[in-house]
Design brief:
The chain is about 70% helix and about 0% strand. The chain has nine helices and no strands. The two termini are about 35 Å apart.
Length: about 240
């Protein structure tokens, strides 16, 4: 839970002399979220995924250049190279991600239990630190963040509906729009799409990314609410074992 990098946060700081703020709560929850029994994504996996996205964007944009600006003999090999980079980067990132999570899928029940044990220990530490602040401050912030979460859920429903239930389906549609006219061996045609299809692809991917970012923010609000509620509840007395 210690976070010394960047902001230099000390989890055992004198909370009785501090004011409870959402920035303080963010730092504690951020430390809680970083605790995991699984290895994190490495630099190669991260940059492979980013390279695949950049290659896809550059390839689509290059395919839309008029022939009078750039000859087809130049754009065709370039978009082919972009497609190769896109596919190879996503394959590398996918294989590395699968290797990281092989333990999670080979022993799902055991891994899940160990993960919950680790998270529960840190969860209790955060709740204990929260109880160092006055109860009235915690109640006020709980009421505020609960209202904020309710409003956010309602607004997201108007725009995205049940994005969590759709999953990666919008991305599959975007890939369909890109590869629907493609035939094996004709690599340049993978980016030979109309301007309208390109705009639809960018729009779908952008909305999908923003939607999941908002879901992450809402999940963080859920965590704030759960921690504040847990800190307000009276701690149970220790059970004395019978003699």
């Amino acid at each position: 839970m210690d976070m010394q990098a960047g902001g230099g946060f000390d989890p055992l700081a004198k909370t009785d002399s501090q004011e409870l703020t959402f920035h303080w709560l963010y730092q504690r929850v951020q430390g809680l979220a970083e605790q995991s029994i699984y290895p994190k994504a490495g630099r190669i996996e991260t940059w492979s995924f980013r390279a695949g996205i950049v290659a896809a964007v550059v390839g689509v944009l290059s395919s839309q250049l008029p022939d009078r600006w750039v000859p087809l003999t130049v754009t065709s090999p370039f978009v082919t190279a972009c497609l190769v980079v896109e596919l190879s980067s996503f394959v590398v990132a996918g294989l590395l991600a699968a290797r990281r999570g092989v333990r999670q899928f080979s022993q799902p029940r055991l891994s899940h239990a160990q993960e919950m044990d680790t998270e529960f220990a840190h969860w209790q530490v955060v709740i204990t630190d929260l109880r160092c602040f006055p109860r009235v401050e915690r109640e006020r912030r709980l009421k505020f963040v609960s209202t904020l979460r309710t409003n956010m859920v309602e607004r997201m429903g108007m725009m995205y509906g049940g994005l969590q239930r759709i999953g990666p389906f919008p991305l599959l549609i975007a890939f369909y729009l890109q590869f629907r006219g493609w035939k094996w061996g004709d690599w340049a045609s993978a980016f030979d799409i109309s301007l309208l299809s390109a705009l639809l692809i960018f729009g779908m991917v952008l909305l999908y990314a923003v939607g999941w970012m908002l879901i992450g923010l809402r999940t963080r609000l859920d965590t704030y609410v759960a921690l504040l509620e847990g800190s307000i509840q009276e701690p149970e007395p220790d059970v004395v074992a019978p003699l």
